Every structure is written in C-alpha cells, then in structure tokens.
Amino acid sequence: MATVSRVLIISDTRFGHVNQSIAYAKYLGYEYDVVEIVFKNKLCKLFSYVFDALKIYSNILFELKVERKYDMVVGTGSRTYYAVKVLAKKMHAKSLTMMLPRGYRYDFDVIFAQSHDKPPKQNNIIEIPANFAYVEPQGLYKADKKSIAIVLGGDSKVFTMKVKEIAIYLDFIMKYYKGCEIVVSTSPRTSKKIEILLEKYDFAYKVIFSKTPSNPMADFLNECETICITGDSTSMISEAISYGRSSVLVLPLKSKSQNKFETFMQALEKKGYLHIFNGKIEHKNKKINFLSYVNKANEIIWL
Questions:
Q1: Nearest to 72 by CA among 44, 113, 108, 19
Q2: Which of 133, 234, 254, 261 ranks highest by number of CB atoms within 10 Å?
Q3: Whose CA is closest to 97, among 18, 27, 37, 40?
Q4: Torsions phi, psi for 174 (to 5 deg)
Q5: d(CA 88, CA 92)
Q6: Closest of 192, 204, 189 to residue 253, by C-alpha
Q7: In angstroms, rounded to a whole number, what is the distance separating the alpha carbons of residues 220 and 224?
Q8: Residue 1: is its pLDDT beyond 70?
Q9: pLDDT in tens, 109-124
Q10: In terms of CATH architecture, what is 7-129+292-301?
Q11: Spatial distance between the Cα atoms of 73 and 61, rounded to a whole number of angstroms
C-alpha cells in the first residue's frame, strides 16, 4: 500500500458529517486537517452539479483555504463533494466520500454508501450498514455498579421530541432497571422542556449539554451494560453499534412521515445490532467492524 502523508477533510461544519471523515482517517492512523468549504452563494452550489456533469472542475464556485499538498481528500455531505473532486484532481490525490454523493457523478476513487440509501452496484462503491464512527472514551464517567445509559437527541426536520413521549420511556427505564446506576446525557438539539423533565428524575450521573457542553457517550459505551438512544440520530446509533459490549435499545420517536431513519433502524435490528423498543426489552449487542470496510477501500484505492 502506498504511503499517505496527510489527509484533507472538507467540512460543511455539520459534526455528524465531519466526524465520519475523521473516523476514516483515524482508523488508518493518518494525520489530517479539517478545512471548511463555503460556496460563494446558493447559485454556485447549483452550478457545481452542472459543472460536475460537464466534467468542469474549478474552484471559482467556492472559497476554501488550503496551504499544502495532500495525498487524499475526503468529504461528507452535499456541500463537500464537488470540492473533493476539484482538489483531488488538482493535487493528483485520491478522492473519497463517506456517504452517497447524490446529484454528482459517482466517479470518486471510493464512495462509502449507507445501505438505507440503496446505492447502485459499482466497483468503487462500498455499501456499509451505518455511518462511519470512531469511538474514543474520554474518562468522563466510570460506573460504580451495573449501569444503564440514556442518550437523548432532539427535534429535527423529521422528528419532534415530545415531553410526554420521553417521560413514558424514562418511567419505564427507571422501573425496569431499578437498582442499577442510571445515567443520562443530552445533545445540542435537546429542548429546554426535555431538560426540565430530566430534573424530575434521580440520575447517578447527568450531562445537560446546554450547561456542560461535553459528550460522555463513548464512556457510556465503555461502562454501561445497555445504552438507550432516541431514534433521531443515525450518528449516535452508529457510534453505539460500533464499540464496546453494550446492548443497544433504540427509543423510537413519532415522525412526520415515513423516512430513511426508520428504514435504517429496522435494517440494523434485523441484523442483530439493536432492538427498537416496543414495550419489551431485548438485548442486542452485535458490533460493526468498520476497519474491515476501510481495508476494502484500500484494496480499491491502491490496486
């Protein structure tokens, strides 16, 4: 395999996207730099699809500051894909995307595509069951006895997290796991109403992101027997099924319409990675080995 000195990660500033690119670099032990891309205006992003279709690769559509040469350019999210191609061609570097780059030509060196996106069969496309995740415990939490974690997301375009719905889940968990150490954390999207609800419960350890902006999820996966996660984030679920020995229990939320999040969770449940709560508890803790997919990419890139 050829030597890679450094990876350029193109960022759209969305943590769930950038972290997938970072995870890829970390699995390989590569040094990396993260650089934000900004299209000059909304029309420029639309033109990027046209330029790509015509095989025109120019940096006139976006602003991005790069001060060195890289061997590999990686991006996740629609705002990054055209820039990945432009810079990879300019530097004679390898180009990778961590999700299916819909709307653009699928001629990157490697495309990782989640199964729920139903990617086409193509030699450079590697189908994966979840988002790339690289979990690193930080020593934020240490269990004193059998522990159960609750990780709450928040409202999105697809889901609305209702207080009554979460209260039902919390009541069940506190009763079912009575005698265990129960811990909880929230996310940047968790509403104030949910935060107020959490004050009514006696948790052994609690992180409210709006007050303490930290993420103990990696430590929960390292320490807890079961982790209960709301079903609004593919990133959180992907982390949970890629590390540790915790059983993963997804707390489904009512959605505004049928969506790929539900398809994503249902597919993972069928394969034994998690259990979608239906009034009963089932222990599912199969884990994804993302390194095996990285090795497949290496075979494609360096042939």
A1: 108
A2: 133
A3: 18
A4: -65, -35
A5: 6
A6: 189
A7: 5
A8: no
A9: 999 999 999 999 999 9
A10: 3-Layer(aba) Sandwich (3.40)
A11: 18
Q: Which of 117, 124, 116, 87 is nearest to 103 (CA)?
A: 117
**Distance in angstroms (rounded) separating the CA atoms of residues 82 and 105:** 10
User: Over pLDDT 90: what percentage of the chain?
Assistant: 91
Residue entry with tokens 């935060």: 195
Rounded to whole angstroms, the maximal C-alpha distance in the chain is: 63
**Rounded CA gap, 79 and 102, in Å?**
11
DSSP label at residue 255: B
Cα distances (Å, whole numbers) of residue 260 to 21, 23, 227, 288, 301: 21, 22, 22, 19, 29
Domain boundaries, the chain: 7-129+292-301, 147-276
| Token pair listed for 270 | 């069928």
CATH-assigned architecture of domain 147-276: 3-Layer(aba) Sandwich (3.40)
Structure tokens at 116: 């729920």
User: Where do we find the tokens 């891309």?
Assistant: 37
